Each structure stands twice: as structure tokens, then as C-alpha cells.
Amino acid sequence: MSDPLRLGVSELRQAYRRRALSPVEVTRAYLDRIAARNDHLHAYIEVYAESALAQARASEQRLASGLPAGLLEGVPLALKDLLHIEGRRTTAGSTVFAGREPSPLTSTVAARLMGAGAVVLGKANLVEFAYGGWGTNQGMRSPVNPWDGAVERCVGGSSSGSGVAVSAGLAAGAIGTDTGGSVRIPSAFCGLTGLKTTQGRVSNFGVDLVSHTLDTVGPMAWTAEDAALLLQAMHGPDPHDPATLAQPPEDFLSALHKGIAGLRISVAPASILGAVEPAIAQAVDEAVRVLLSLGCLRRDEAFASIDFVADQAETGVIISSEAYAEHGHLLEGSPPRGDAAARARLLSGATIPAPRYAAALRERQRRIRDFARVFEHTDLLVLPTLPVTARPLATIDESDLAPSRLTRFVGYHGLAAIALPCGLSPEGLPLSLQLVAPAFHEARLLRAGVAFQSATAFHRARPSSF
């Protein structure tokens, strides 16, 4: 096998079971590539080379001895640096936490992934305090998109380092968090599959949150099957997070390949597709034809219920208020220099009156109830993930909310969504399709993703520098 770093989570698992590869050699290959490329790409804040190799050796021993293997045995992953691991520092992408004490606890997600045999390569970079859609971070160095070797382009945020880690071959999969698009946006800019889970599906215990109302943890990987494996390992009820207790564990793997014939899809109208880059609109149109060829039924009335501008603005009120409540005190006095744009967004929460915040929460609950009626007539909403392709870092306008224009409504209405690669622009930059489902219908999204990827090859594209 010439390059194991081109393999996704599912393919690595198969190679290990055939004894075609070993977890130790694969982990070493990832660590070597990280050492060679991370100084330029800024994907990782911290790399755990010694412990990663120890975890890989333990996986190799379990596989060689015939002991029961974990679902993710020997699979090297990157974790967004919001997820605590006991004995490791968690920075939340901020220079404020540069001297933070090592964590006394391990997040439920990290514990479950490692319990399933995953190898944690290190903590991935992110937008400071996880608050931004372009993926920039002046304080910790902005991650660089690997899809353009000539121009340094944005990655998307806030799970920016997680996106780079996978797309540049520095991890087989990664974990991000999504508030208003922070898993889907970097997945789209980086040619990955990214799953926005429903809040309550995956535990938030041990995760530094930017918005306790909206934050969710989700997988980022090459394929929907990879994402399903990661979700399977980390989801489920957790007594440390009461929001998870109402949803029993679910099997996301058994029905992955059953197809999507009969699913009703509602496609974004011309008013939306006409406001995105032409290459994106064309790619989405072609993706819709693929979905219809797989047996989906088109029902297009659903989008009349979505006000993207209002949903984006109302989401901003909630995020800013809660981000300021959580982190605002850290920026009092003379904090170390960091990301000015992210801090300005966070500090804007100080100007939002408590009645305005409370009204935003009440209105959201009303809109969630009203929006549920949309899915009486459709099973999936189909639209672009992003209206733009990855822009040069030097040209980013931080006041431009374009990255989250088509993603924020998902979290605002309490839905689930998946970003899927659906082509390349004339410049060779990834294009992305977004499928949206009702709350707790991640299985439907993953099944649709697997069906789409079985009929296309976009998820197999890699950056030329890979």
C-alpha cells in the first residue's frame, strides 16, 4: 500500500484487519508528515507524539493478539482544542490560555474515542474562542488551506485546524464543534464530509463552549461512512450532560448502504442558487440530478419557510451573548494579544441587553416548533454549504458573514446537517453540497451521504500537494 495517509477511517480499519498495515507504522507516518508540514499549515496547536505512539502500540497488540478490537482501533485522529484531555492544556485557540494548567478531566467525546481504540495525534487549531467563520486566528497563526499551493487561502472556521489536519493528510479524521456552521464550513472549504449533529446527540461535557444553547460536537472526515464510524463511537447518553439523556444510543452503521430511493428532497430555489458563485450553483444542480437518479423524489416548497438573513442575525445575538458571558471576563484589563476580529465579535455581546437575549431564546423556540412542519412534506433540504470558495487569507473581510449565510439556520432551528464534497471550481478549490434533516435524523443524512458518494468520486479528490 503506497500511501496509507490517503486512506480514510473505514479504509484504515479494513487495512488493519487484513494486516496490510499496522497502527504503529501509520501513526509514525502521520507524525512525520505533521513534523514536515505543520509549521506552514498551522493545523495543530500541540502534537502528542509520545502518547500517540503508545496508543498505537496498544492497538497493534490488541489486533495481533486477536483480542476484541475497538471500533476505531488504531485510527489516528485530531481533536479540536476545545475538548479537554486530562493532563493536557486546552487553549480554545486563545493566547489568554497559553499558560493554562493541564486539564483535570477528559471530555466524554475524547474518552469514548480513545476507548474505541482511536489514536489522538494532538489538538487542532481553531478560531480564537471558536468564534468565526473564515478560520483566521491572528494570535495562534491562521491555518492554511492545502488545496492551493500558490496562494494561502482560508480554511473556514471555527474548526479550522481540524479541516486542515484531514485534508492535508495530517490525520485520518478529526473532531470539530458546530455552532453556526463550524464543522460544515471548514469541511466545505477543505473538500471533506462534515456532520453537524443535533444538540443532545453527542455529549458536550468537557468541551469549552462558545454557546451552550447551540454548540454541538461532530465528525470531519473524507467520507460519510467515516463520519458514521466516528459518530457511532462518540454519541449516546451521558449523565454529565443532561441534554443527551432523552436520546437512546442508535446504530448508525447497519443501514448505511440501504440506499435513498423514495426520500423526498426540497432543492434550494433560484433565489438562493443565484446568489452563490456560479461553479457552486452548477455543482449543486448536478448533485441534485445524482440524488434523483438514486430514486429521490423532488418536493420544492420547503424553502419558503426559511429566512436566512433573519436566522443568521438571531443566531448572532445568541452566540454573542453567551460567548461574552463565558469568556468576556478573560479580555478585561490587558490580555495578551490575540485575534482582534474574534475578540470584537465576542465583546459585542456586552452591548446586548438581557431582555433582547431572552427574547431571542423565546423566539427561537417558537420558530423551532413552526419549522418542524417543513419536514411534514420533505425528508431532506438540499442547498450549497457555502456561497463562496476559499478566499486568499490576505483579502479576508472579517465583517463579511458569507461563510455562515447558508449554515446558521440549521443550528438555529435545532436541525442536523451534513456537508458533502460535490466538485472542484475552475481554480481547483472544493465545492460542497449541504443536506439538512430534522433533529436526531443523523442516520438519514449519513445514509444519503453514503449513497451520493457511492455514485460520485468527489470525496476521493486530494490536494495536489498531498
Automatic annotation (TrEMBL):
PROSITE patterns to which the protein is assigned, alphabetical:
AMIDASES
GO MF terms, alphabetically ordered:
catalytic activity
An example of a Pfam family matching this protein is Amidase
Domain of life according to the entry: Bacteria
Recite the lineage of the species.
Bacteria, Pseudomonadati, Pseudomonadota, Betaproteobacteria, Burkholderiales
Q: Which residues form the Amidase domain?
A: 25-446
Q: Which residues cross the membrane?
A: none
Q: Which PANTHER family match?
A: AMIDASE AMID-RELATED, TRANSAMIDASE
Descriptive protein name: Amidase
